[in-house]
Write a structure and sequence with these properties.
Helix content is 39%, strand content 17%. The chain is an alpha/beta fold. The strands form three sheets. A nine-stranded mixed beta sheet has the order 8-7-6-9-10-11-12-13-14, with helices on both faces. α5 crosses α13. About 1% of the residues have low confidence.
């Protein structure tokens, strides 16, 4: 993990004035007895420790409780360098913390470095089917494939952003995003690393049957694609998908509104190309299969395997302990279960991530298993760093390439 750094500057005069008002009672608010003894009556030493403990608190990520100052003790090592001890009941228990303290005129300056701010995702055996794409050092953007996303509508520009960036963070060499003309300016400004293309609309923000030729041009030459996040459920959009999906010559991930629209034409699903990954949550799976959500949840792996075979597709049944099932009977259950991923947009990131892995040459089953595993590990890491509530979908994006690198180097 990347070290976290905190810096603080404390005026020595401010510490002196506080001591003058409150005497030893003030010192005991932020110094241990051993620190008080070591510092003697030196206001410079008091200020240095105040600054160092403030810097340690600033190095912690938001959402992680700062330890009380008296639960952190800073005393010199035999060689004179500061040694930091933290109490066992603090958020820093068991962590290495390095500090440097200096004085310049009327100020004490401290820098704190925390190499590891929280437990890494628990080690787990890689699931069968997990595979990271090769990353040859002499590769270029063409080496790592082109992923195309058809996503977003008025009010759902975030879905388009998260999906396309999920593909980009997977390592895909090029990512194209196809969006309605009226929301094009928003995405063109936000997605600086993604090539955004506007499409004709049937209504503001609604991509429909008039966009068929533009969609097919956008997917021309693609190595993989993702369709559906935030796309909307207009009848014209359904006609568009029924027309273009069978004609796209690339593996696809169908997510969100693509699944909801296909649920209106269930007999079409088995006739679509087999190199398609379906990524429904339980309610979407229920609409696609005709089952009650309670029936889906009561036998998640069983129903995923049954319908993967019936639909001749790879199915990713999302939720705690996400299930990945293939038409040939293979399946796996992801062990990650964290409420940190229970927020809007995390599924859009997953859909883009799987599409990006497809673009880099993984099979549909491999891309689904690998994407789900990475997504789950990212959730566990963010839970450890931020907590189980308040994690944003966009925060998953920078975690993904770091996880892949650790897995490649065996340091996970």
């Amino acid at each position: 993990m990347i070290p976290r750094v905190g810096v603080d500057v404390t005026a020595i005069e401010r510490i002196e004035k506080a001591f003058a008002r409150h005497k030893t009672r003030f010192l005991r608010k932020f110094l241990t007895e051993r620190e008080i003894e070591y510092c003697g009556g030196s206001a410079e030493s008091w200020a240095g420790r105040w600054a160092a403990k403030e810097a340690i608190g600033k190095a912690l990520p938001s959402g992680v409780a700062r330890p009380r100052m008296v639960d952190v003790e800073i005393l010199p090592r035999p060689d004179g360098r500061p040694h930091v001890w933290v109490g066992q009941k603090t958020s820093l228990a068991g962590r290495t913390v390095d500090v440097s303290i200096a004085h310049d005129g009327h100020f004490a300056i401290a820098v704190a470095v925390i190499p590891d701010t929280g437990p890494r995702p628990r080690p787990a055996a890689l699931p069968p089917g997990f595979r990271l794409p090769e990353r040859p050092r002499d590769g270029h953007k063409g080496t790592f494939g082109t992923a195309v996303a058809l996503a977003g509508s008025q009010g759902f520009t975030g879905a388009a952003y998260l999906t396309s960036m999920g593909a980009a963070r997977s390592g895909a060499g090029l990512v194209r995003l196809l969006v309605g003309q009226s929301i094009y300016p928003i995405l063109a400004e936000k997605c600086t690393e993604v090539m955004v293309t506007p499409l004709p609309e049937v209504a503001p923000g609604v991509v429909g049957h008039v966009s068929a030729s533009g969609v097919l041009r956008g997917f021309s030459g693609a190595d993989a694609g993702v369709i559906g996040p935030g796309l909307g459920r207009d009848a014209s959009t359904r006609r568009l998908l029924e027309d273009v999906i069978p004609r796209i010559q690339a593996p696809l991930v169908l997510d969100a509104d693509a699944l909801n629209l296909l649920a209106e034409q269930r007999p079409l699903l088995p006739r679509l190309p087999q190199e398609i990954v379906l990524t429904p949550h339980p309610a979407e799976f229920g609409r696609l299969s005709g089952l009650e959500v309670s029936a889906v949840q009561s036998d998640r792996e069983g129903v995923a395997r049954r319908f993967a075979a019936a639909w001749k597709k790879v199915v990713v049944l999302k939720g705690a302990r996400t299930v990945v099932a293939a038409a040939d009977g293979r399946s796996c259950v992801n062990d990650a279960a964290t409420a940190a991923l229970a927020s809007g947009g995390t599924g859009d990131v997953l859909a883009g991530l799987i599409a990006g892995l497809l673009a880099q040459g993984l099979t549909a089953y491999e891309a689904a298993v690998t994407g789900v595993h990475l997504h789950g590990l990212a959730g566990l890491q963010l839970e450890a760093e931020v907590g189980s509530a308040g994690v944003l979908a966009s925060e998953i994006l920078p975690v993904i390439p770091r996880l892949m690198e650790r897995l490649r180097t065996g340091s996970a």
